[in-house]
Amino acid sequence: MTADEPSSGGWSEATKAYKANPTIENYVKLRRENPDVEIEVAISGGMEALFAMEKEFRKYGLEPELVAGVMDADTDSISKVCLHLLEKIIAAQSLNETGETHLASRGKTVPNKFIDWIIACSLDALSWNDNLQIPRDLIVLIRERLGGPNREYDQMIEVYEMKRNAGLVAGQLKAQGVNPTFRILGEIFKVAPSTVKRWFEPGELEKEIDVWAKHFDKDGKMIPISDWVSKNQK
25-50 pLDDT, tens per residue? Predict the structure, then answer.
Protein backbone atom coordinates (compact mmCIF):
# COMPACT_ATOMS: atom_id res chain seq x y z
CA MET A 1 0.00 0.00 0.00
CA THR A 2 1.24 3.55 -0.74
CA ALA A 3 0.20 6.99 0.44
CA ASP A 4 -1.85 7.24 -2.75
CA GLU A 5 -4.19 4.38 -1.83
CA PRO A 6 -7.06 4.39 0.69
CA SER A 7 -6.47 2.29 3.83
CA SER A 8 -10.12 1.22 4.12
CA GLY A 9 -13.57 2.11 2.97
CA GLY A 10 -12.47 4.59 0.30
CA TRP A 11 -11.86 8.30 0.68
CA SER A 12 -14.19 11.10 1.57
CA GLU A 13 -14.67 13.83 -1.00
CA ALA A 14 -12.74 16.18 1.29
CA THR A 15 -9.81 13.76 1.35
CA LYS A 16 -9.83 13.50 -2.44
CA ALA A 17 -9.86 17.29 -2.71
CA TYR A 18 -6.95 17.60 -0.31
CA LYS A 19 -4.90 14.91 -2.06
CA ALA A 20 -5.43 16.74 -5.35
CA ASN A 21 -4.10 19.98 -3.87
CA PRO A 22 -2.29 19.38 -0.54
CA THR A 23 -1.66 22.99 0.43
CA ILE A 24 -2.36 24.43 3.86
CA GLU A 25 -4.77 26.91 2.27
CA ASN A 26 -6.77 24.09 0.75
CA TYR A 27 -6.66 22.05 3.96
CA VAL A 28 -7.96 24.90 6.11
CA LYS A 29 -10.73 25.60 3.57
CA LEU A 30 -11.77 21.93 3.49
CA ARG A 31 -11.59 21.56 7.28
CA ARG A 32 -13.72 24.67 7.82
CA GLU A 33 -16.27 23.46 5.28
CA ASN A 34 -16.27 19.89 6.64
CA PRO A 35 -15.70 20.13 10.42
CA ASP A 36 -17.06 16.63 11.11
CA VAL A 37 -15.42 14.79 8.20
CA GLU A 38 -12.16 12.89 8.61
CA ILE A 39 -9.57 14.11 6.13
CA GLU A 40 -6.65 11.77 5.46
CA VAL A 41 -3.56 14.01 5.29
CA ALA A 42 -0.70 11.65 4.38
CA ILE A 43 1.11 12.93 1.29
CA SER A 44 4.74 11.78 1.64
CA GLY A 45 6.60 8.52 1.91
CA GLY A 46 5.12 5.26 0.75
CA MET A 47 6.98 2.04 -0.01
CA GLU A 48 8.06 3.28 -3.45
CA ALA A 49 10.33 5.76 -1.64
CA LEU A 50 12.45 2.85 -0.38
CA PHE A 51 13.65 2.10 -3.90
CA ALA A 52 14.18 5.69 -4.94
CA MET A 53 15.99 6.64 -1.71
CA GLU A 54 17.92 3.45 -0.93
CA LYS A 55 21.37 4.97 -1.61
CA GLU A 56 20.45 8.04 0.41
CA PHE A 57 19.39 5.91 3.39
CA ARG A 58 22.63 3.94 3.37
CA LYS A 59 24.65 7.15 2.97
CA TYR A 60 23.36 8.33 6.33
CA GLY A 61 23.70 4.96 8.07
CA LEU A 62 20.09 3.79 7.80
CA GLU A 63 19.16 0.33 6.57
CA PRO A 64 16.27 0.41 4.06
CA GLU A 65 14.52 -2.35 6.04
CA LEU A 66 14.43 -0.07 9.09
CA VAL A 67 13.02 2.81 7.07
CA ALA A 68 10.44 0.38 5.67
CA GLY A 69 9.21 0.00 9.24
CA VAL A 70 8.87 3.79 9.44
CA MET A 71 6.76 3.82 6.28
CA ASP A 72 4.57 1.11 7.82
CA ALA A 73 4.07 3.15 11.03
CA ASP A 74 6.00 0.69 13.19
CA THR A 75 6.70 2.73 16.33
CA ASP A 76 9.84 0.74 17.24
CA SER A 77 11.32 1.46 13.81
CA ILE A 78 10.38 5.14 14.07
CA SER A 79 12.07 5.36 17.48
CA LYS A 80 15.25 3.66 16.22
CA VAL A 81 15.48 5.97 13.21
CA CYS A 82 14.84 9.06 15.34
CA LEU A 83 17.50 8.07 17.86
CA HIS A 84 19.96 7.47 15.02
CA LEU A 85 19.27 10.93 13.60
CA LEU A 86 19.52 12.55 17.03
CA GLU A 87 22.94 10.92 17.45
CA LYS A 88 23.95 12.33 14.07
CA ILE A 89 22.85 15.80 15.17
CA ILE A 90 24.86 15.48 18.40
CA ALA A 91 27.94 14.31 16.48
CA ALA A 92 27.64 17.23 14.05
CA GLN A 93 27.34 19.70 16.93
CA SER A 94 30.50 18.26 18.51
CA LEU A 95 32.41 18.59 15.24
CA ASN A 96 31.20 22.18 14.84
CA GLU A 97 32.50 23.01 18.30
CA THR A 98 35.96 21.73 17.30
CA GLY A 99 36.01 23.98 14.24
CA GLU A 100 35.04 21.43 11.60
CA THR A 101 33.35 23.04 8.59
CA HIS A 102 31.52 21.88 5.46
CA LEU A 103 30.33 18.80 7.32
CA ALA A 104 27.43 18.02 4.99
CA SER A 105 29.53 18.13 1.85
CA ARG A 106 31.98 15.69 3.43
CA GLY A 107 29.28 13.27 4.53
CA LYS A 108 29.82 13.78 8.26
CA THR A 109 26.33 15.00 9.02
CA VAL A 110 22.76 14.46 7.91
CA PRO A 111 21.15 17.43 6.07
CA ASN A 112 18.22 19.04 7.83
CA LYS A 113 16.07 18.56 4.74
CA PHE A 114 16.58 14.78 5.00
CA ILE A 115 15.72 14.79 8.73
CA ASP A 116 12.61 16.86 8.03
CA TRP A 117 11.58 14.43 5.28
CA ILE A 118 11.91 11.48 7.67
CA ILE A 119 9.79 13.35 10.21
CA ALA A 120 7.12 14.05 7.57
CA CYS A 121 7.13 10.40 6.45
CA SER A 122 6.79 9.21 10.05
CA LEU A 123 3.85 11.49 10.75
CA ASP A 124 2.17 10.64 7.46
CA ALA A 125 2.61 6.90 8.10
CA LEU A 126 1.06 7.23 11.57
CA SER A 127 -1.87 9.13 10.11
CA TRP A 128 -2.27 6.74 7.20
CA ASN A 129 -2.35 3.71 9.50
CA ASP A 130 -4.70 5.39 12.00
CA ASN A 131 -2.02 5.19 14.68
CA LEU A 132 -1.90 8.63 16.24
CA GLN A 133 0.31 7.62 19.16
CA ILE A 134 3.56 9.50 18.48
CA PRO A 135 6.75 7.89 19.87
CA ARG A 136 8.57 10.17 22.30
CA ASP A 137 11.80 9.83 20.31
CA LEU A 138 9.98 11.38 17.37
CA ILE A 139 8.70 14.18 19.61
CA VAL A 140 12.26 14.97 20.74
CA LEU A 141 13.49 15.00 17.13
CA ILE A 142 10.64 17.29 16.06
CA ARG A 143 11.29 19.62 18.99
CA GLU A 144 14.99 19.76 18.12
CA ARG A 145 14.18 20.74 14.54
CA LEU A 146 11.74 23.39 15.83
CA GLY A 147 14.51 25.08 17.75
CA GLY A 148 15.35 22.89 20.73
CA PRO A 149 14.25 23.23 24.35
CA ASN A 150 15.42 26.86 24.80
CA ARG A 151 13.20 28.68 22.37
CA GLU A 152 12.28 32.34 22.73
CA TYR A 153 8.87 31.72 24.27
CA ASP A 154 10.26 29.20 26.75
CA GLN A 155 12.71 31.88 27.87
CA MET A 156 9.87 34.39 28.18
CA ILE A 157 7.99 31.97 30.44
CA GLU A 158 11.10 31.39 32.54
CA VAL A 159 11.67 35.13 32.96
CA TYR A 160 8.01 35.58 33.93
CA GLU A 161 8.31 32.92 36.62
CA MET A 162 11.61 34.32 37.93
CA LYS A 163 10.14 37.82 38.01
CA ARG A 164 7.05 36.67 39.91
CA ASN A 165 9.16 34.74 42.42
CA ALA A 166 11.53 37.68 42.83
CA GLY A 167 8.61 39.96 43.66
CA LEU A 168 7.30 37.48 46.22
CA VAL A 169 10.71 37.03 47.88
CA ALA A 170 11.30 40.78 47.88
CA GLY A 171 7.98 41.27 49.66
CA GLN A 172 8.90 38.61 52.19
CA LEU A 173 12.21 40.33 52.90
CA LYS A 174 10.51 43.71 53.27
CA ALA A 175 8.10 42.23 55.82
CA GLN A 176 11.15 41.08 57.81
CA GLY A 177 12.65 44.56 57.74
CA VAL A 178 15.24 43.80 55.05
CA ASN A 179 15.70 46.15 52.09
CA PRO A 180 15.37 43.82 49.06
CA THR A 181 18.02 45.25 46.74
CA PHE A 182 18.79 43.93 43.26
CA ARG A 183 22.08 42.61 44.65
CA ILE A 184 20.36 40.59 47.38
CA LEU A 185 17.78 39.21 44.96
CA GLY A 186 20.54 38.36 42.49
CA GLU A 187 22.34 36.35 45.16
CA ILE A 188 19.14 34.50 46.05
CA PHE A 189 18.30 33.62 42.43
CA LYS A 190 21.95 33.11 41.42
CA VAL A 191 21.92 35.74 38.68
CA ALA A 192 23.58 39.12 38.25
CA PRO A 193 21.89 42.12 39.90
CA SER A 194 21.55 43.66 36.43
CA THR A 195 19.56 40.60 35.31
CA VAL A 196 17.06 41.06 38.14
CA LYS A 197 16.81 44.75 37.25
CA ARG A 198 15.94 43.87 33.63
CA TRP A 199 13.00 41.77 34.81
CA PHE A 200 11.15 44.85 36.02
CA GLU A 201 10.02 48.13 34.51
CA PRO A 202 11.08 51.25 36.46
CA GLY A 203 9.12 51.34 39.72
CA GLU A 204 7.51 47.93 39.09
CA LEU A 205 9.52 46.05 41.72
CA GLU A 206 8.55 48.55 44.39
CA LYS A 207 4.85 47.96 43.60
CA GLU A 208 5.34 44.20 43.76
CA ILE A 209 7.09 44.54 47.10
CA ASP A 210 4.17 46.54 48.54
CA VAL A 211 1.67 43.93 47.34
CA TRP A 212 3.56 40.87 48.60
CA ALA A 213 4.84 42.33 51.88
CA LYS A 214 1.27 42.38 53.20
CA HIS A 215 1.12 38.58 52.91
CA PHE A 216 3.96 37.92 55.38
CA ASP A 217 4.47 38.55 59.08
CA LYS A 218 7.61 40.06 60.63
CA ASP A 219 9.22 36.60 60.79
CA GLY A 220 8.75 36.07 57.06
CA LYS A 221 6.00 33.51 57.46
CA MET A 222 3.04 33.71 55.12
CA ILE A 223 -0.12 34.97 56.81
CA PRO A 224 -3.09 32.58 56.45
CA ILE A 225 -5.46 33.81 53.76
CA SER A 226 -8.37 34.06 56.19
CA ASP A 227 -6.31 36.27 58.55
CA TRP A 228 -5.03 38.38 55.65
CA VAL A 229 -8.56 38.99 54.31
CA SER A 230 -9.85 39.83 57.78
CA LYS A 231 -6.96 42.23 58.38
CA ASN A 232 -7.36 44.03 55.05
CA GLN A 233 -11.14 44.39 55.37
CA LYS A 234 -10.79 46.51 58.50
Answer: 999 999 999 999 999 998 876 777 88
Pairwise CA distance, residues 82 & 227, whole Å: 55
222 backbone dihedrals φ, ψ, rounded to 5°: -70, 130
The residues that bridge with 222 in the sheet, in sequence order, are 216
CA distances from 61 to 83, 95, 116, 122, 189 (A): 12, 18, 16, 18, 45
Assessment of whether the complete model's pTM goes beyond 0.85:
no
Query: How many whole angstroms separate alpha carbon 182 and alpha carbon 208?
Result: 13
The span from the CA of 230 to the CA of 212, in Å, is 16
Q: Provide the H-helix boundaries in 21-74.
A: 24-33, 48-52, 54-59, 64-71
* Residue 6, CA distances (Å) to 16, 19, 167 in order: 10, 11, 58
DSSP, res 181? -
- Radius of gyration of the chain, Cα coordinates, nearest whole angstrom: 27
